Task: structure prediction
Amino acid sequence: MTTTFETQRAALADVVAIPVTPFTEDGRVDQDAHRALLRRLLDGGVRTLTPNGNTGEFYALAPEERRLVTELTVQEAGERAAILVGVGHDVPTAVASARHARELGAQMVMVHQPVHPYVSAAGWVDYHRAIAEAVPELGVVPYIRNAQLSGARLAELADHCANVIGVKYAVPDAAKFAAFARDAGLDRFVWVAGLAEPYAPSYFSAGATGFTSGLVNVAPSVSLNMIEALRSGDYPAAMKVWEQIRRFEELRAANGSADNVTVVKEALASLGLCRRDVRPPSRALPEEERAEVAAIAAGWSV
Result:
């Protein structure tokens, strides 16, 4: 029997939330705060969660912490959300993480872009193929940030691995995305705008049907309002949301996205939901910049 992955595909065509990983004062994963933040997302209407995404500080977590974050997310979500677990690093580590996700009952894995100074297009296919073939029961979603990769390479990967069902596309170029998606097969994959709300309207106009979000940690209703507008083709309404979140996302994107996670955690801290602590190479916002983030968060209906 061939797996069609229809449930997983539907889950990707949505707001794909990337939860933060809160820390205690002594630097450990704050399990109680993590569970509370996950419940807040679920109660707010979020139905797709990505533990161990970049907003969750994937690269700053130890292997046992990544496993813990996955376990907490699966346990807290239960049947309320689809789980797309972030995996990566070397192939054996990524495969072990994917198998751990499968054992817990997660439905999908997102494969972080290979962190290597020398990435060939053929090697990119080999890397993802090794992971996808290790967990044929799971939907696999490559996270693409490499502007040099062609859509034909993604099609090649999917020819080998039918469980490659979606793409988190995070190259900041809407025209390149439109071409890449059509070269790979527009209807073959679920296209997720991987640069969140700021790029969602332009990427939806070119074929995306879902988008990732870190902002959703702070204001779930804002992100859900945007996707409802985009689903209905109401781009003026979507751009109203875009204007609402513009400054928040500009703060996250400044200086090469140095404060991408920091701004989200600062907003959550201002609402009393978790500590603002982030791990190096991120850093907490200076005192003088915190007030603006708090004012934005307070202005949203959360």
Notes: The two ends are 44 Å apart (CA to CA). The beta strands are 15-17, 48-49, 82-87, 108-111, 139-144, 166-169, 190-193, 210-213.
